[in-house]
Design goal:
This protein is mainly beta. The protein has six helices and 37 strands. The strands form eight sheets. Strands 1, 2, 3, 16, 17, 18, 19, 31, 32 and 33 form a ten-stranded mixed β-sheet that branches. It starts with 6 loop residues before the first strand and ends with a strand.
């Protein structure tokens, strides 16, 4: 775990009313500073968390030019680096792959970046539980998002594609192909306090797309620490002007689940799709596969037509004729996961418009789980002056230009804390008397609960997570709950333990089912439960060491509509 930024003396600052906007009270806890002077930036909207310049950690560009498709890293206090004849003292952020030929610590050559050990990832300052995995650091990119598992630079893709192709959990406040422009843009981080809670702020200021210096994209990502890994995430939007439409991703999309979503009898396929999928026969274009497909049904074809057959089950049929009447694609081969692993195939509607990836997604090796905040709104609609401009929208708050979503025990929720400061009638421009726009988050859920070694008894942590899960089932009226139990395995285990592990995995799955069933009550008796015990199969981590074996003692719950 990276050492947290050194705390300075807390210095509560009361921010004054500016143009009628009451900003959030912020207590600075970092002693960070910039090396090269930041570029000028003036707040335009009402959602900004306005940390003073002297308390931010800025990106140091080392006199370089524009930065396109760059992963951004953190260099800690006590490290001095010289690159391109520019010297910078840590802490600072950088798009440059610095190493021991550039940097020193305590007078000795020092390598400040090692991705495999997470050295160089940005320290959050507290732990967040993102879909069941605890993170204390992350990697942002110039393309408007953060990666939790490794530094990546993907862009122009849907959220599911971004997660799968990077093999990382991702969060994107504004996912598109963007550029940090020297002499214009800023990027900074801050560990601070917002509304009396520890907070972590990332700020992209006056970014643009390649070749268009007149564009301005300014937005923030703010994590609020609610304790025990729970958090709220604020997406703050200040300006989105002159955005070139070609630098987003095509939407709506449909992602074929080649693993369990193909029915060879009916030739229907199920998968993941964004909202507003056309209900009539529609031309779609291939965006390629994630993983290695066993079937060659898509080989040689670039244009398809699909027809939505069942919206509730996300089922479509695929055709090669524009009327979806005569040339249906037959699926005869299922995905061979043993030989080829998991695979998905993405199709999208090409109507000339593109959208922005806004939300979060995770691929855990078997399932893609995604929360999109504004799926399929076109870039033209979202920019300043558009028919649905993002700086005027709000989700789970009344503050214009702010979206708030959270996770509790690793499960996405819109039951977030108010962003209106205590003793204030507004927060960043919101009014306490306005109705709060609420995001209906009812995507497929995947929840993991863990167990003690050799036990099928639900722990207190598991019960807390199941409580949150049960609330989501009630809110979204989910109909299908698949529960799969697993165990760890030790190389010293006797062969006779094989039956024990199978019984243990069955028992873990059953106990989870009984807990959910009992807490839901009789009014939810029509839920379809499927149970399985798979012993030590599909381990999440190595069984070589006890500290990693613990992750494999689990039950995975997949909940769908």
């Amino acid at each position: 775990m990276l050492e947290r930024l050194k705390k300075g003396k807390k210095n509560p600052l009361s921010l004054f009313v500016i143009l009628g906007i009451i900003f959030l009270q912020i207590n600075v806890v970092s002693d960070a500073k910039a090396n090269s002077s930041p570029n000028s930036f003036t707040v335009q909207g009402q959602s900004w968390v306005n940390v003073p310049d002297s308390e931010r950690i800025y990106l140091e560009n080392f006199g370089g030019g524009n930065r396109d498709d760059a992963a951004l890293r953190y260099v800690a206090s006590g490290v001095t680096c010289t690159y391109n004849s520019v010297t910078a003292n840590g802490p600072f952020l950088t798009p440059v792959d610095l190493n021991q030929t550039h940097c020193t610590q305590n007078g000795s050559a020092y390598d400040p970046i090692n991705d495999s050990s997470r050295l160089g990832s940005l320290p959050i300052g507290f732990s967040i539980n993102f879909y069941g995995t605890n993170y204390t650091s992350l990697w942002p990119s110039t393309n408007g998002g953060v990666y939790f598992d490794s530094p990546k630079i993907q862009y122009e893709d849907s959220l599911p594609h971004l997660a799968f192709s990077s093999n990382s959990s991702v969060l994107f406040p504004l996912g598109a192909d963007q550029v940090y422009r020297a002499g214009k843009s800023n990027f900074w981080m801050a560990q601070t306090t917002v509304n009396s809670k520890p907070a972590f702020v990332l700020s992209w200021e006056k970014f643009d797309t390649w070749g268009n210096a007149n564009e301005k994209f300014s937005y923030q990502l703010v994590f609020l620490n609610l304790g025990s890994g729970d958090f709220d995430a604020w997406f703050n939007y200040d300006e989105l002007s002159n955005f070139d439409n070609q630098f987003g991703y095509y939407a709506p999309y449909f992602i074929v689940d080649a693993n369990s979503g193909v029915n060879t009898a009916s030739d229907l396929v199920t998968g993941i799709y964004s909202n507003d999928l056309p209900t009539t026969c529609t031309s779609v274009i291939s965006h390629g596969s994630f993983g290695t497909l066993t079937s060659n049904v898509f080989s040689g074809l670039s244009n398809y037509y699909f027809k939505l057959e069942n919206a509730s089950t996300k089922s479509i049929s695929l055709w090669t004729d524009p009327g979806c009447t005569s040339s249906r694609i037959d699926f005869t081969t299922l995905q061979n996961e043993g030989a080829n692993g998991k695979a998905f195939y993405e199709l999208y509607v090409d109507d000339g418009s593109k959208s922005l990836a806004i939300g979060w997604s995770i691929y855990d090796g078997s399932t893609i789980t995604t929360t999109e905040l504004i799926p399929n709104s076109t870039i033209a609609e979202l920019i300043n002056g558009g028919t649905d401009q993002i700086i005027s929208k709000s989700i789970n708050t009344t503050t214009p230009g702010r979206f708030i979503i959270g996770q509790r025990s690793g499960v996405t929720t819109n039951n977030v804390e108010s962003d209106i400061p205590v003793n204030s009638s507004s927060g960043g421009g919101g009014s306490g008397n306005q109705a709060v726009p609420v995001l209906n988050i009812c995507n497929n859920l995947k929840v993991i609960v863990n167990f003690e070694g050799g036990s099928s008894k639900l722990t207190k942590a598991a019960l807390r997570k199941l409580k949150d899960t049960i609330n989501e089932i009630k809110k979204c009226e989910y109909k299908n709950v698949k529960i799969v139990g697993y165990t760890s395995i030790d190389k010293q285990d006797s062969p006779n333990y094989k039956i024990f592990r199978k019984n243990l995995s069955d028992s873990r799955a059953l106990n989870v089912k009984l807990e959910i069933e009992s807490k839901l009550g009789k009014e939810y008796k029509n839920i379809n439960y499927k149970l399985a015990g798979l012993s030590e199969k599909n381990p999440l981590k190595s069984n070589k060491y006890e500290k990693t074996r613990k992750s494999n003692r689990r039950v995975e719950i997949l909940i769908t509509k």
